[in-house]
Design brief:
Helices cover about 10% and strands about 40% of the residues. It is mainly beta. The chain has a single domain (about 5-65), classed as SH3 type barrels (Roll). The radius of gyration is 11 Å and the shape is globular. It starts with a helix and ends with a strand.
Length: about 70
């Protein structure tokens, strides 16, 4: 997955919630565009949950995105 693919999904107007799938089978629900950011100059994304917990994920571990049931890989 590339940073551009993730940015395109996050910046789609109107915003549609989506899920980030990673190689260890975890999923991160992105319910608002502020819950995900691409780290500038790096190959990582940051995701935050509704409680404010943050996790940095290397882009090579992102296997796909699911938007409204449609999977993008």
């Amino acid at each position: 997955m590339t940073a551009q693919q993730i940015k395109k999904t996050r910046e789609h107007a109107p915003f549609q919630p989506f899920t980030v799938h990673v190689s260890d089978q975890r999923k991160f629900e992105i319910r608002h565009p502020d819950f995900l950011w691409v780290v500038t100059g790096d190959r990582r994304i940051g995701v935050a949950d509704k409680n404010g917990a943050v996790e940095l994920i290397d882009l090579v571990r992102v296997t796909s995105l699911t938007v409204n049931g449609s999977r993008e890989s």
